[in-house]
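**Protein of interest**
===
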Amino acid sequence: MTDQSSDMDYPPTHIEVVPGLSAPQPGPDAELPPPAGHSASENDSKGKNKRMASDMEVASSDGDSTRPPSPIRIVFRVKNRLPYDAPVWNDDFTAAEYVSAIADVPKASFVAYKAILRHPNLFFQFTLRLPPQDLLKLYSIDKEFHWRCNKYNTSLIYDHAKYHAPAAASVFAPQLFPRFCISDPVLKPMDNRTHLARDIPSLRWVKLVMYRDNIVRQILTLLALEGHIFPRDMATVLMKFWVLMETETIAGRQAQLANPDNWSDADLHLFCLFLLKLDMRFGNPITGQGECALSRLVLVQSRLTFLRNVLLGRELKTYKELHVRVYHSFNDQTINQNVMDMWFDMEDDDGFGDEAYRHGWNFLSQEGWVEDGADLPTGVDMLLEECVTRDLKIESLCVDFFMYGYVDSATGKNISIPVFGNEKKLVYVKEGWPREHERAEAWERAKRVEAKKRAMYAELWERAKRELLMPRNIC
């Protein structure tokens, strides 16, 4: 067999160089000339830790002799190979004796894992269903799995991310995170520059996608446990807003919002619904954490992880943490200095009032997230401005946003909310809380308590009258 073998052949352990077919391949430190018609320049550099695709040179049509030599031709010798303990042919064997000796050699036992890897269809389905940590472990320790993943790297990475987090894989595209991309392991060329290897998403990008998808799901679950239910597409809208939060320039944010394919009118409606529900969550007099202004504070951060931590009670547990976060997020013109400056007059042991401690604040309100940058409007303000620009009339939908998720408009009954059932799993009750029999029991219990109170008051009144009308002995 020649090098044009099937796609699923295992990489050979024995390499035979066929003489006369090609010249030896240059060493890894040898410099290869650029392809015909191309001159090396500073723009051809791919940067740090990027690989060159010089092994994938394509010969020019004019037959330029300056192209690098062809790679070594490999002959596969995998099939029909005998085990190491098989008898070796020599003069001591006759043909019949050798055939009988070969027949007595035990064959290798069947291994399901290896059979799955070498199957042309099961390999891909098996890889897609692996958790990211197991995929990384197999990629690190199994040579055959490592080789096959490198051969189909791009398709496997994309399909694995879309299988576990389809919405997040489309929103958090690898083009937005070049630091999570690597050079193609098989050195496929980039565009028309055949001397440069293309960039492809890595397993770090898959972990990023799945982590952010998990954060968004946690936020919606925590709000749903308190009765704030959202439509199914709300997760995608929050992921788009996360991308908007991470953008450090005004032009980048405006370009995202001005594109109706990226932010449609329905997406803007859903975000306004989420903003109102978040205000209701923070403004709740019993389970809330203060006032509605907290929702604006948590949405001007650089990521939604802060919102998840606040809902879990891990952030903003003291007034001091709140004031520090405010100064990190807003500029001096937005903050009421008369109220906030009293914190800088305090002489704390941790140096809260020191100038060195205050250095670097307000960076989230500056373009580029630097102190001397131009004023950067928050993502929430720019979204609301886009709603006004498109004339969506959000103010006419506030009542509908307020009632959504609580009352069924068709039947007029309460909508059930998820609660923790057995084994800490979320379950939905058939009827919204409080259920009918619970309301009846509470009403009967209240009537019994009221009857006891009336009876007690009547008894006290009768006792008071007897004491007042009782004749007194006058000495």
About this structure: DSSP finds 19 helices and six strands in the chain. The longest strand covers residues 193-197. The two ends are 135 Å apart (CA to CA).
